[in-house]
Specification:
Strand content: 25-35%
CATH class of the largest domain: Alpha Beta
Radius of gyration: 21 Å
Catalytic activity: S-sulfanyl-L-cysteinyl-[protein] + uridine(34) in tRNA + AH2 + ATP = 2-thiouridine(34) in tRNA + L-cysteinyl-[protein] + A + AMP + diphosphate + H(+)
Site (Interaction with tRNA): 128, 332
Function: Catalyzes the 2-thiolation of uridine at the wobble position (U34) of tRNA, leading to the formation of s(2)U34.
EC number: 2.8.1.13
Family: Belongs to the MnmA/TRMU family.
Oligomer: single chain
Shape: globular
């Protein structure tokens, strides 16, 4: 069946090959590049393949080679509101957001998909490394490049209007195919870091947005060990940049309290948690389990997978890990899997250390 497909083309190799595959499959494909910055010079430069100033030109050249119509959509206002401002607000609240996940949720698969459907398109095609089978998301065959974690926020309706042509191949195969197709982005480096922080200095970006607000760094007993210029510069599990001096044994950030502007540190063992509460659950692969059910869970992008039992209660996801995990930060996503199939996702709102009360905020 021939579909009208809107191919989101970032300017990188993955989205270019995905658009080419969709066109080769006989679909009626139109390419679109999302302009996400009101001031492109404020974003990273250099051929990185995501949101840089060169990417619109690279995407247009790829569309010309493929032979499909191409347009640029100005999404700068939506991106600033839904991704950048949310990123700042989450850090101000003592949480650690994932802006790429938020961009997929609110921009690529909400604002863009809504506009695409209104214009008569049947599906949005992207270059994400994930498989779509029987209406459910599965991990890519290239586990190192798998992006199911950042797409697990999609609901069933959004998935039904999505197309992911690259989930059955490795990144090396994608680059080789791009070269065979004559796409100039075949050797373009992958994107890393946060596109709207030009110099990669997240702490500096947050300081400019939120200002300096000195506060204490304390141990678990409340003893003051040092000070900081803003709690928003820290995340759970962080070790570097504490500046506590050689007299203090190695410490990790255990929690961030935005109201009192206090950062609590302790040993690595004190980072261990085995209970997680997460809010705003989305169940794309199964119905919400009312009783504890066995899954595996991934707690951060490219993080390890943990065995667990999970269920939904009072609109929240409750997770009990089989073994304690460390560095679990509020604001990150907890994504549940059955094998390599995404079952559901929610945003971590509280954790509890083994044998202790939950730490929330």
């Amino acid at each position: 069946m021939t579909l009208r497909v809107l191919a989101a083309m970032s300017g990188g190799v993955d989205s270019a090959v995905a658009a080419a595959r969709a066109a080769e499959a006989g679909h009626d494909v139109t390419g679109v590049h999302l302009a996400l910055s009101k001031n492109p010079q404020s974003y990273r430069t250099g051929a990185r393949g995501c949101c840089t100033v060169e990417d619109s030109r690279d995407a247009r050249r790829a569309a010309d080679v493929i032979g499909i119509p191409f347009y640029v959509w100005d999404m700068a206002e939506e991106f600033d509101r839904e991704v950048v401002q949310d990123f700042v607000a989450e850090y101000a609240a003592g949480r650690t957001p994932n802006p790429c996940l938020r961009c997929n949720e609110k921009i690529k698969f909400e604002a863009v998909l809504e506009r695409a459907v209104a214009l008569g398109f049947d599906a949005v095609c992207t270059g994400h490394h994930v498989r779509l089978e029987d209406g459910r998301l599965r991990r890519s065959v290239d586990y190192a490049k798998d992006q199911s974690y950042v797409l697990a926020v999609l609901d069933r309706e959004q998935i039904a209007h999505s197309m992911f042509p690259l989930g059955d191949c490795t990144k090396a195969e994608v680059r080789a195919e791009a070269d065979r197709r004559g796409l100039a982005v075949a050797d373009k480096p992958d994107s890393h870091d946060i596109c709207f922080i030009a110099d990669g200095d997240t702490a500096g970006f947050l300081n400019r947005r939120l200002g300096s607000e000195p506060g204490p760094i304390v141990d678990e007993s409340g003893e003051v060990l040092g000070s900081h210029d803003g709690a928003h510069a820290f995340t759970v599990g962080q070790r570097k940049g504490l500046n506590l001096g050689g007299a203090v044994n190695r410490r990790y950030v255990l929690s961030i309290e935005p109201v009192s502007n206090t950062v609590t540190v302790g040993s690595r063992d004190a980072l261990a948690v085995d209970r997680i509460t997460a809010e705003r659950p989305v169940w794309s692969g199964c119905e919400p389990p009312a009783e504890p059910t066995a899954f595996t869970v991934q707690l951060r992008a490219h993080g390890e997978v943990h065995g667990c039992r999970a269920h939904e209660r009072d609109g929240r996801l409750e997770i009990v890990l089989d073994e304690p995990a460390t560095g679990v930060a509020r604001g990150q996503a907890a994504v549940l899997y059955d094998g390599d199939v995404v079952m559901g996702s929610a945003t971590i709102s509280a954790t509890s250390r083994v044998g202790e009360a939950a730490a929330a905020g």
